[in-house]
## 1
Amino acid sequence: MDRIIGIDLGTTFSAVAYMSDEGAQLIPNALGDALTPSVVGIDADGRILVGRSAKELQVTQPDRSIGVFKRYMGTDWKIELGQHSFTPEKLSSLVLKSLKQDAEAHFGEPVQSAVITVPAYFNEHQRKATIRAGEIAGLKVQRILNEPTAAAIAYGWHSADEEKIIVVLDLGGGTFDVSVVELFEGTLEVRASSGETFLGGEDFTSTLAARVLEQHGMVFEQTETRHPQLISRLRQECEQAKRRLSKQEETIIRVPNEKGELSENSRASTVTREQFQKWTNHILNRIEMPIRRALGDAKVKLGDIDELILVGGATRMPIVIERATELFGRSPKSRLNPDEVVALGAAVQAGLFARDKSVEDLVVTDVSPFTLGIATSRELAGELQTNFFMPIINRNTPIPTSRVDRVSTLHANQTSIDVKIYQGEGRKIEDNLFLGEFKASGIPRGAAGQEVDIRFTYDLNGVLEVEATIVATKKRITHVITRHAKGLSASEVTQAVAEMAALKTHPRDEAVNRFLIRRAERLYQELPLTERRILDNMIVGLEEALELRDPAAIESNRTALESFLNHFDTEDHNEETYGDD
Ligand code: AMP
């Protein structure tokens, strides 16, 4: 059996892990970090950058680099970077490819298969887009695993024989999920999941940035259009400030000028944790409804819960921990790093596929977090209304599942019915997400009331197949939602693979140097003139050495530049971004 890796494809960071003899282990990237920023950029030479170098590029050239694209998975959203147009699938595929390469470098052999995690509340289109992204990256996606389920696996796989109920709250960069999980007799059973796809740490950062701008008489949206560099840099400042506020009571946030530059004379605001809490309270309130829904669906009372687990970087915020403690009347557990736990759980799931002996006794079951059904008609006061939603698979049904329901024709001699498929909890279809449609034709002519069976089959990846059978003739029409999902078709995937392969990417061993140059270019913007000149010479030195492929010169230029940066760079990026546990 192939080696299978576990990947957490996060909104802000991604991570890759595998199952070793000692249990699940993270694989470091080329820079030695366990977390790779989910950011993709394209430099002036048209080369693709992924991770920290792309994040650095984002600050100096926001139009050449992009993050937080996971939010647009499964939609028609596109972005131009350099000469190329990218869909969220293609951008995600570049992150996945980079993680795949890190794993290959780690093992010294090719890796072809992966378990990839998604928010539990990701819909059909988003899941399918994630599978496509994996395919474009050259990975066989063995399983799409829900992030909170992965976290519960990481916490529970050692002790799945104990009987207990765990609640997982997962607040990442862009999404919030809650899952109620039961452990018993070697089984890890998700009893219910709920969530929101547009609620995460990025919203806290955006609100902080908007409020700080407001204090200086500016409006976020207008400023974003007019001065993208200012916003890009301010967001970075606010991101760091938000993290500082997780540890300290107040912090200073500097506002960059229109070119995105900061100096000692920059305008600044002092923000207290209390103020930040007030500004973002409306965002935090939104976690309560999905929690109530998940507990209700799982038929679990607060007193039944044995463990509360917080996952996702944004749960480091004291306001999130306080609110969770308040809501559940208990302190959360945080034995594992909230940024890493999802990738570790994915690795355990990968181990289950590879029949790794350390996990062979574990059984994991999950649920469909949404209700799935079709549009149906009802007669109201003699009038036919066609916009009602008829659930076929109710939310939080254990998967895989297959359910059938019968519908019938409304008119005499009606030879076909339109099967319109929706997902959601609304009574009317307009409140739900349209997934696709097809025609079930070939119904024999006759009186109204000819019957058609509609079968919904929902697999372990959360991918839906719908089948209509005309009862009288046994004729079957099958429809897999993916064919109509927004995003890429199978042939488009092949094309995308070719397109992505044609993009120039930096060789892996160059990633470190490219990152260093990006970091230097960011610092360049802030330094006084004399230091700028020195720095410029050093960058040129390293670039020349890289151009000439001279290993000794590369090494010496790199070391010199590194020590210069460490001396001048005010914020130790490594510390700020990764070491705040
Ligand atoms: P994830 O998608 O799980 O990696 O979560 C990333 C989110 O967590 C981002 O929005 C980060 O800003 C946020 N985050 C990470 N560390 C902290 C921290 N120390 N304090 C506040 N937010 C954090």
Note: Residues 571-581 have pLDDT under 50 and may be disordered.
## 2
Amino acid sequence: MSDTEEKRGDGFPEGFLWGCATSSYQIEGAVDADGRGPSIWDAFCREPGRVAFGQNGDVACDSYHRWPEDVRLLSELDVDAYRFSIAWPRVQPDGRGAANRAGIDYYSRLVDALLAVGIEPWVTLYHWDLPLALGRAGGWTDRDTAYRFADYAGTMFRALGDRVAHWTTLNEPWCSAFLGYEAGEHAPGLRDRPSALRATHHLLLAHGLAVDAFRRGACPGEIGLVVNPATPRPATRRPADLAAAGRASVERTGLWLDPVFGRGYPEAYLAARGASMPVEADDMELIAAPIDFVGVNYYNEDAVKAVPATPLCPDGYAYVPTSIEKTEMGWDVVPQGLRRVLGFISRSWPVRELYVTENGAAYSDSAAADGSVRDAARVAYYRGHIAACRDAIADGVPLRGYFAWSLLDNFEWAHGYGKSFGIVAVDPKTLERKPKDSYYFYRDAIAGYSE
Ligand code: FCB
């Protein structure tokens, strides 16, 4: 191949999609601008002790105002696609009723600007910023939230469906349900397992209703779901540990993908909890509305061993320490875990297309004397995980694209601004953007230069 020929991604199939991802609450700021209503995260951040250093997304990266700069950074990176999310409370400040034109216009301008520089917008409808009014009415434990979501989704399909060809309904619904309602780590901060299970069903129903609205609206694009599967490896090859590893993956995989692919809820999982789901007539058919792709967010892989089941951990497994190098989140760096999880998903469910919709690492960076950010550990992380994608494709996984998380250092939920995932640094005071070495590495990887 000559140097002048278009060549993207060394060893990747033609048409493989290269992208970068962010989410609304993590980057936009401008929480009171142009009629935006409050979200459950605005309220959660104000509760003492919830978020590190009492931080919040009031300003974040101010992408609500600085998006032209973000688009320029994406354009110079030469990505094919930008995955961002829509803040539901900008569109429906109370989560219901008439749409707020100014909110829609913001996303409409962003979409036009991306298309103008040849970047495909990938829109996530829900990345955790539920309108607070719905949160106060029960949030995802309330069945009505699913219908409200479908209504909001329909509004967005009508507003942007002529220009957006890829939609995802929910980002990592496991986090919404279990970090939000069982672990208490994310908004709304409950610690109640029955609520987490109710939320699971209503999130899936919301997803199904939105897919149904998308098909009925005859929207031309594709729609899918983004999950964060975990397939921990067994600490040893003992049968008990092998079985424990299988059980440990269900809450992050089969609990979501079984119903979406028409297999109903995993019975052993519910039985271990003595639980049932608040299923009503036709729910399971709606949830199983055919989707076009599954998005996989992957950061790390853990190891587990078998332990006796307890009420706290009814699946009978426990995490064990490993010798593996960790990121600033304390997460093991396991590139081949990405290959394993993609293989597991493509073997276990009839997925037509898979995308890695998030992958990246937090490290504490510091600028060198000349201002450059030499984030060698993040570069190594990307190098390993991009290679693992190539391996997965060679294994026969229908992997069609990869999105780096994240374009910018941003508000990392309960960790506040203390954990940096960006390939572009954002100065906390001036909000000035500064590409790190990982940004240049990713640009070169997309251009197909191998080292
Ligand atoms: C994922 C979230 C994303 C970001 C990364 C680090 O779980 O989808 O918003 O916080 O983790």
Note: Residues 23, 26, 171-172, 175, 228, 297, 358, 405, 412-413, 421 surround beta-D-fucopyranose (CB under 6 Å).
